[in-house]
Write a structure and sequence with these properties.
Blueprint: E1 6-11, E2 29-30, E3 33-34, H1 35-45, E4 50-55, H2 60-67, E5 73-77, H3 84-90, H4 92-96, E6 101-106, H5 114-125, E7 130-136, E8 145-149, E9 152-157, H6 164-167, E10 171-180, H7 184-194, H8 205-211, E11 216-220, H9 232-252, E12 256-257, E13 270-271, E14 276-277, E15 282-283, E16 288-289, E17 294-295, E18 300-301, E19 305-306, E20 311-312, E21 317-318, E22 322-324, E23 329-332, E24 335-341, E25 346-349, E26 352-358, E27 363-364, E28 369-371, E29 381-383, E30 388-389, E31 394-396, E32 399-401, E33 406-407, E34 412-413, E35 422-423, H10 435-445
Parallel strand pairs: 1-4, 1-6, 4-5, 7-11, 12-14, 13-16, 14-17, 15-18, 16-19, 17-20, 18-21, 19-22, 20-23, 21-24, 22-24, 23-25, 24-26, 25-27, 26-29, 27-30, 28-31, 29-32, 30-33, 31-34, 33-35
Antiparallel strand pairs: 2-3, 6-10, 7-10, 8-9
The protein binds uridine-diphosphate-N-acetylglucosamine and calcium ion.
Calcium ion is lined by residues 108, 228, 230.
């Protein structure tokens, strides 16, 4: 089958008015990336030779996604939204270059898998002129119904045009349709003629192809793959299915998730083997956790690289640029941003480490803050290998503490501390023996006011 060339057309121009959003529907994220990007990636994995994406006139962000497709891809603008058939016509320039198979996918159906797309391609390779991916819907409301007779798909009836008995049909149109490339242009012309006034339904191609004696079949996919997102409740349903898949993949990849249903992944989270993820952990985009690291409960991690054997949390926040070295310890209520923590460093309690380097084996005491911002710009804090920062210290950047230096608890460090030096920067303690007792005695003699 690989000998057959395949063009995949992705429709993404719809306004999605039921999302009630200023953002175009297909740019709403699932697993932290736009729905359309999921569909583009899946089309790529399914072995398409070329992609054609149809977007609206006011969707500049789509061009970036198409540019990053990693394969030959063209962008087409549908200037008026006159339906799915009209949208495919907007990609006419791509259709003119012949392909054996042309598949149409929807940008609002992000969970589609390469396997389902392959099933449609196999039907075409097996001799079908038109193949539609259907699914059994628990609630078919809003979907086009597949009308099948004698093993052939005879029509797709959109909900608003369906009769009462047709509405009872639960086999629905996923939106994925595969056409023999040589047949598609004439089907599109015929759709145009049928709906001169109103909406051009791509789904009308089924009845037209049947009337012309072509072979039209329905394949069946899984409902979880073809959930179409028309509103935010369906977006949340998609997200839930995405998360179930991501957790499953993480566990099969060798990570232990103690309570998988409480862990939330981004589409690009990378976990090594023997990673332990405790309950209630959220991963934002661009996280790598290497082999044997542990993310403890209630931590929020984004844009971070956690290296082998490190332990993060509970209740830690790693922000973009957190580079947590081998066997580092990040404890509770510690926030790390754009900072490199070298092997074996420890920041165990209640700290903010931002725009900094913490050298190998350094120990940063409870409540240490890197004061990295003066209200205008950020400055760097450098803590040397093996340094010891006493609790409740403020390191006012730009500042450097040398290798092996010790900073006394409660210090406000504004000047660099040389290697192996001791720095103390706080008011000296005065002790007055007996003073407290004398104070109380004096107070007791005075009448209370
Ligand atoms: C469509 C199908 C329906 C199917 C359902 C599956 C048609 C006529 N109906 O209905 O049979 O069960 O999807 O989810 O095909 N789009 C454009 N330009 C347009 C209109 C739509 O690019 O002018 C794009 C949208 O961005 C979207 C996709 O096509 O990605 C589907 O459009 P939508 O309006 O959501 O169709 P449904 O009513 O869901
Ligand atoms: Ca839809």
């Amino acid at each position: 089958m690989s000998a057959r060339t395949c063009l995949i057309v992705i429709l993404a121009a719809g306004l999605g008015t039921r999302m009630r959003s200023k953002t175009p529907k297909v740019l709403h994220p699932v697993g932290g990336r736009p729905m359309l990007a999921h569909v583009i990636a899946t089309a790529h994995q399914a072995g398409a030779d070329r992609l054609a994406v149809v977007c609206g006139p006011d969707m500049p962000q789509v061009a970036d996604l198409v540019g990053a497709a990693g394969m030959p891809a063209t962008l087409h603008v549908q200037h008026e939204r006159k339906g799915t058939g009209h949208a495919v016509l907007a990609a006419r320039a791509a259709l003119e270059r012949a392909a054996d198979d042309v598949l149409v996918l929807f940008g609002d159906t992000p969970l589609i898998t390469p396997g389902s797309i392959m099933r449609v391609r196999e039907a075409l390779a097996g001799g079908a002129d038109l193949a539609v991916l259907g699914f059994e819907a628990a609630d078919p409301t809003g979907y086009g119904r597949l009308l099948v007779k004698g093993g052939r798909l005879v029509a797709i009836r959109e909900e608003k045009d369906a009769s009462d008995s047709e509405r009872l049909v639960t086999l629905c149109n996923s939106g994925v349709m595969g056409f023999s490339g040589s047949l598609l242009p004439e089907l599109l012309d015929a759709i145009g003629n049928r709906n001169a006034q109103g909406e051009y339904y791509l789904t009308d191609a089924v009845e037209i192809a049947n009337a012309r004696g072509h072979t039209v079949v329905a394949e069946t996919g899984h409902a979880d793959e073809v959930l179409g997102v028309n509103n935010r409740a369906q977006l949340a349903q998609c997200e839930a299915i995405f998360q179930v898949r991501a957790r499953h993949a993480a566990m099969l990849g060798g990570a232990t998730l103690i309570a998988p249903e409480t862990v939330f992944f981004s589409h690009d989270t990378k976990l090594g083997a023997d990673v332990l993820i405790e309950p209630n952990v959220v991963f934002g985009p661009a996280v790598i956790v290497e082999d044997g690291a542990t993310i403890r409960a209630f931590s929020h991690v984004e844009g971070a690289h956690v290296k082998s054997g490190a332990v993060v949390g509970p209740y830690a926040r790693l922000r973009p640029g957190a580079d947590v070295g081998e066997n580092v310890r990040i404890g509770n209520f510690v926030e790390v941003k754009k900072a490199v923590l070298e092997a074996g460093a420890k920041v165990n309690h209640l700290s903010y480490i931002g725009d900094a380097r913490v050298g190998a084996g350094a120990n940063v005491g409870a409540g240490t803050i890197t004061c990295n911002y003066d209200g205008f710009s950020k400055a760097h804090t450098d803590i040397g290998a093996g340094a010891f920062i006493g609790s409740n210290s403020a390191l006012v950047a730009p500042v450097a503490v040398g290798d092996g230096a010790i900073v006394a608890a409660g210090s406000v460090i504004v000047d660099d501390v040389p290697a192996d030096a001791f720095a103390v920067a706080r008011g000296r303690q005065a002790v007055k023996p007996g003073w407290a007792a004398a104070f109380r005695a004096a107070r007791r003699k005075k009448p209370k006011d």
